[in-house]
Specification:
This protein is α+β, with helices and mostly antiparallel strands. It contains 13 helices and 10 strands. Helix 6 packs antiparallel against helix 13. The radius of gyration is 26 Å and the shape is elongated.
Length: 337
């Protein structure tokens, strides 16, 4: 059996099984895939694939289905992740660009990815640790009331209203904002408290009281990290795929509910040369996900945060990988603006 034909037969079995959900026989392969050989030859090829643990016969069926090892070989042989169609790209761009703030962007992202892939979508909020100060805004709402806004380079926007004990003038507030911004613009959020303290010590005595109030608020806002927060969408898609989880769908749902499990899994996934990470069935280190696959990638300035999908091992990997990568790229672009 030639290596190229073995891979072609495996590819055909994966594609047919993903499409039909039915075990694939040799006659069907000959009829549908123009492999240029007889059913008998295909049966021999399938016997070799089965010996190698790439396909298996469920129960007493005459057809075969891919194993986790078979899916892995198939995924590894996808040389290029195909681009989405122009209408799909336009739909992603239109939906994400209409978002009002980071929470809205994240919510739209997971709903969009779940809709495109018909799987469960998961997105991790941007990591604050590596983010820096993009802008600071101070707005006088009343003589003793200030809105303080901290905008980070990863797109997070934190804000808080603070009350002062004495009136503050617009001109004084504008000077304070400019002094603070010039001192900390571009500073990493993790280093912000120290830099703010150093800046405050250089303020003229008349500005230190109100300056100290604003500095304390900014220190608090910088600590409101999103590192441990994820959003999910499309869990109902799993319910429509219960037949793809022979043992039980329960452990998969439990793993999704345990955000710590999903965060740990996403953080451990390493990308291949295509910028995508795929964990298939038993490759997942968490028992509840042994019948599921996870396709993920990073996004943002340093690709530190992750987004991806979780679904049954019987999924359309090429399309799913393309969707995950495309949505990640658009999300990165939105956050950079």
């Amino acid at each position: 059996m030639s290596e190229p034909r073995r891979l072609e037969v495996l590819r055909a079995i994966v594609e047919d099984y993903v499409h039909s959900r039915e075990p694939v026989g040799s006659k069907a392969l000959v009829d549908r895939h123009g492999l240029g050989v007889s059913s008998a030859t295909i049966r021999n090829d399938m016997a070799v694939l089965e010996e190698e643990g790439l396909i298996t016969a469920p129960h007493t069926s005459s057809g075969r289905i891919p194993t986790d090892k078979g899916y892995r070989l198939f995924v590894d042989r996808i040389s290029e992740v195909k681009p989405l169609s122009a209408p799909e790209k336009k739909a992603i761009q239109t939906l994400l660009e209409g978002a009002e703030d980071l929470d809205d962007v994240m919510d739209r992202t997971v709903r969009l990815l779940a809709q495109i892939t018909n799987q469960v979508a998961v997105v991790q909020f941007p990591r604050v640790g590596g983010a820096s100060v993009r802008h600071i805004e101070c707005v006088l709402l009343a003589p003793q009331q200030i809105l303080v806004v901290l905008i980070a380079s990863n797109g997070t926007v934190q804000q808080r209203i603070v009350r002062t004990h004495v009136d503050i003038e617009e001109s004084e507030l504008a000077e304070l904002k400019q002094r603070i911004l010039s001192a900390v613009s571009g500073v990493k959020l993790v280093a912000l408290p120290g830099e703010l303290g150093a800046a405050l010590s250089q303020f003229p005595p008349g500005l230190r009281a109100h300056g100290g109030t604003i500095v304390r608020v900014l220190e608090q806002l910088a600590g409101l990290g999103r590192d441990d927060r994820i959003l999910l969408a499309g869990t109902a898609n799993l319910a429509r795929s219960t037949g793809d989880f022979p043992l039980s769908i329960g452990p998969v749902l439990e793993a999704l509910e345990e955000q710590v499990v999903m965060l740990r899994l996403l953080s451990e996934m390493e990308y291949d040369a295509r910028g995508i990470s795929v964990r298939i069935g038993s490759e997942n280190p968490y028992g509840g996900l042994s019948e599921a696959s996870v396709v993920a990638t990073g996004y943002g300035p340093d690709a530190g945060a992750k987004l991806g999908i979780l679904g049954p091992t019987r999924m359309d990997y090429p399309t799913t990988m393309a969707a995950v990568r495309a949505v990640a790229r658009y999300l990165s672009r939105i956050l950079e603006e």
